[in-house]
Amino acid sequence: ETGVTQTPRHLVMGMTNKKSLKCEQHLGHNAMYWYKQSAKKPLELMFVYNFKEQTENNSVPSRFSPECPNSSHLFLHLHTLQPEDSALYLCASSQSSHYTEAFFGQGTRLTVV
Amino acid sequence: ELKVEQNPLFLSMQEGKNYTIYCNYSTTSDRLYWYRQDPGKSLESLFVLLSNGAVKQEGRLMASLDTKARLSTLHITAAVHDLSATYFCAGHSGTYKYIFGTGTRLKVLA
């Protein structure tokens, strides 16, 4: 596997369910990100981790809980979501030096019913 | 807080024509990125612009950066159908924050 891998690619969950999204990067990067992409809003930055430490929580509701056990893995734990949380969730990674772009995974298409 | 705006939001153009997508940002961003997203796919990096006056070209796409005007442009030359996609610009806020514009959905008509 190369690049940034996200699983699952598609997820349908009820509002009372608990599920997790997984992201793994094989690029040797030290920063990882969760973004939300919905039809109504541009790419919204949710969380940033650098060397496993959370450096940004962009006022995300507590029903979204990130976890970064090491620099290669990032999880997004979901519980009691709302239908408006249905979106494409994108994981990205970057090298936290100055001049590099972020590399994105394929995303998880989440539908909350 | 850095804000990034793109225009137009939608662009429908004929094959063979030229057009420019504009990206304005609100505060200092010492680097600017352009990405492409195909429907149902992830974001693919196109250009990284690191300094004022930077210009990069790849095929029919050329990107430039004017940090004084807080403006980046993505110019499309002689568009072809394969360029149909959504294009995003992104600025950098702090060390680890990539802030994206609203995207420009480009459709190239045969």
What report would you give on this structure?
The complex is a heterodimer of chains A (113) and B (110). With 113 residues, chain A is mostly beta strands. Chain A has no helices and 11 strands. In chain A, 0% of the residues lie in helices and 57% in strands. In chain A, strand 7 and strand 8 (73-79) form a beta hairpin. The mean pLDDT of chain A is 92. In chain B, the strands form 2 sheets. In chain B, strands 2, 4, 5, 9, 10 and 11 form a 6-stranded mixed sheet that branches. A 5-stranded antiparallel sheet of chain B has the order 1-3-8-7-6, with no helix packed on it. The chains are: A mainly beta (113), B mainly beta (110). Chains A and B meet through strand 4, strand 5, strand 9 and strand 10 of A and strand 5 and strand 10 of B.
Question: What is the gist of this entry?
Answer:
The complex is a heterodimer of chains A (113) and B (110). With 113 residues, chain A is mainly β.
Q: Which segments of chain A are poorly predicted (pLDDT under 50) over 5 or more consecutive residues?
A: none
Report the C-alpha radius of gyration of chain B, rounded: 13 Å
SS elements, strand count of chain A: 11
Helical coverage of chain B, percent range: under 10%
Termini of chain A, distance in Å? 32 Å
Helix content of chain A: under 10%
Quaternary state of the chains:
heterodimer
Helix-strand pattern of chain A: EEEEEEEEEEE
Secondary structure category of chain B: mainly beta
Counting DSSP H or I runs of 4 or more residues, the number of helices of chain B is 0
Give the number of helices of chain A.
0
SSE order of chain B in H/E notation?
EEEEEEEEEEE
Strand share of the residues of chain B?
over 45%
In round numbers, the mean pLDDT of chain A is 92
Q: What's the total number of strands of chain B? A: 11
* 3D shape of chain B: globular
Mean pLDDT of chain B: 93
- Percent range for β-strand residues of chain A: over 45%
Mass-distribution shape of chain A: globular
Largest sheet of chain B at a glance? 6 strands, mixed
Taking the sheet with the most strands of chain A, its summary is: 7 strands, mixed
